[in-house]
Design a protein that fits this description.
about 230 residues; alpha/beta; Rossmann fold; 4-stranded antiparallel β-sheet; 8 helices; globular
Length: about 230
Amino acid sequence: METTIVSFQNVSKRYHLKDAVQGLSFDLPAGKIIGFIGPNGSGKTTTLKLMTGLLRPTSGRVLFQHSRVRRIMAEHMAFLSDTGAVYGFYTVRQMVNYYAGVYREFNLDKAGAMLEFMQLDGGQHVRTLSKGQEGRLKIVLAVSRQAPLIVMDEPLSGLDPLVRQSILTGLISYIDLDAQTVVLSTHEVDEVEPILDMAVLLDHGEVRAMDSTDRIRETMGGSLLEWMKQALV
């Protein structure tokens, strides 16, 4: 029987009289790589921020390991944002050490190995990194944490298309799915499909479809992108 790590119970979030997400109810199983996909403005980022306690729901409940999500749970969740998260005045190595000082479960050995894999120079200042290099650094900082839940908002954003697949493939080797769950949002549906165990399709702030990728391939006889297109018709 699968263990639930995150549960949304009739969750809505409203901004200035407009619902960003509404009536979200779903359970996410532990030990999986789960992709949130959908058109721009579908509510993916809001959903991920609700999941990590960065936003509070207007109504409903978000549970993490059966407890209501709060900001103080940050040590149990690693969140890779599509903005912020790094400081230009640090070198890459100093940025890693900063995270190690903030998060007790940060794994410096894993971070060192990932810096090498991502071809990042520990002595280079963050402010001099290209957008793609900064994106790779953010992945290192998130995945080097031994948190039970790793949440990544558009982790492929800014990465060179030529290296995305190798980064995704290598990423799996640094994640312990016996103890960790990965949730990510992306527009690059075709590229992330090979690593996903489950997909959640959002549209206009609502869950339109949710299933395991194995079952999607078996029942639809096609790709995740085709499943997405049919669900949005």
